Amino acid sequence: MPKVLIADKLSDAAVQIFVDEGVQADVRLDLSRAELIACIDQYDGLVVRSRTRPDAELVAAATNLKVIGRAGIGVDNVDIPAASAKGIVVMNTPFGNAITTAEHAIAMMFACARNIPVADRSTRSGKWEKSKFVGTELFGKTLGLIGCGNIGALVAERALGLKMQVLAYDPYLTVERAVEIGVTKVELDELLTKADVISLHTPLTDQTRNILSADALNKTKAGVMIVNCARGGLVDETALFAGLSSGHVRAAALDVYVEEPVKDNPLFSLDNFVGTPHLGASTREAQENVAVQVARQMSDFLLNGAVSNALNMPSVSAEDAPRLKPYLALAQNLGLLAGQLTIGGLSRVEISFQGAVARMNVKPLTSSALAGILRPILCDVNMVSAPIMAAERGIHLAETCEEQKGDFDSVIQIKLEDESGVREIAGTLFAGVPRVIRMDDVQLDAPFQEHMLFVSNEDEPGHIGALGELLGQEGVNIATFNLGRTGAGSKAFSLIGVDAPVAANTLDAVKSLSHVRKAYAMRF
Known about the structure:
Blueprint: E1 3-6, H1 12-21, E2 24-27, H2 33-39, E3 45-48, H3 56-61, E4 67-70, H4 80-85, E5 89-91, H5 98-113, H6 116-124, E6 142-146, H7 150-161, E7 165-169, H8 175-181, E8 184-185, H9 188-194, E9 197-200, H10 214-218, E10 224-228, H11 237-246, E11 249-254, E12 273-275, H12 284-304, H13 321-341, E13 348-355, H14 363-374, H15 385-392, E14 396-402, E15 410-418, E16 421-430, E17 433-439, E18 442-447, E19 451-458, H16 463-473, E20 478-485, E21 491-498, H17 504-511, E22 516-523
Parallel strand pairs: 1-2, 1-3, 3-4, 4-5, 6-7, 6-9, 7-8, 9-10, 10-11, 11-12, 13-14
Antiparallel strand pairs: 13-15, 15-16, 16-17, 17-18, 19-21, 19-22, 20-21
Helix pairs in contact: 1-12, 5-7, 13-14, 14-15
């Protein structure tokens, strides 16, 4: 019988699911860190929330552990690379707390608009300062959503019910989806200048970190209100303090912070600031949902080998896994290549399978490719969540199978439509190794490397030498170099495998070379 250790509080219903399915569930909430490390080798599964930290030390001691289940969406407390290195599957429950988080964002808006926390403190202290805490209505105001996926759309729905106007900035939100949910899609600068309330609902990535910077806040309307129930780090807390102190920002409410748990923060000294301790997912209903979901997922994995909502492993049945494994890698890498070249406004993804692969179970391959496409901008995306996230943003997904082989036994092709137009990328397996064989109408033969440089250029003499010389001067060691072109003196692409990440200043230097159209540093 598989054994699962429940190290953080889980509902009785979730514990019962383990028992009913035939999994031994030990609830041990009072273990010290040393005790946890000492006993973890006895278990096949570990269930955590946010308190317990399965870090590299704990993972190293977990000699029999097969799966870590996080009852919730955030996995900041789990060392996923360490778990992956030991073959431990890490699962989360990404959709169990969407309504709860959306409702908390709305509650924070009301708290800001009506001065509720500071008025409560004043009244409790024996004062009756009715005229001091005159608020403002949300009715008729403009809400700006930065991020309009699942939770953002739920916030929009509730704001529209309050008769607010809703603007949304989300590079992956299509105009059709925006119309469907009743919001107006805008660019970030327009949202900043028009919104009376700004609410953030986006993952924390290199692109979104400090998206509400000092410069961004300076563009906002005087009296704007800021709400962040998504991820700490989306708002520059120092700039927010300055805006609140000056009065340019009327009020702000944060449920998440750059550092958590937070015990002291300059924002806490301000009467026009509302702070809560990461309560977005903290309702009885949400806690029950994610607990039950993780118990079912882990039981199904331990007993049947099925993988759901895995962050470090594709969701594939035990029967299909051996045949699909190399094609899953190919699909994901092609998706990552396409996603890292996508500018924004992605509206359509078409994935086609040709030859022998078309006769396989291609659904996991489609999800793997789509997850790769979305991952550069939506960090917390996996094979299970990718189709849902695409649908939420109105991205049309098409899948086709053709049994004719052509020049290769099997080919996977991705066709994207975004703001810049249409792009096609195709790949195949050679001796089981994924390779790119075509980008648009340019033929290539390029294996994937962990770090790569993509260059689009005019096919002119001296380009390769100049590029190689520059990379050498910058200390970039080339592992592979693959060049393709449509014809002499025409468009050319290069995919260059390098031994380390390409620094930003090096990438800028590459872009400044004569005949270079575009250049991207990539990671696979």
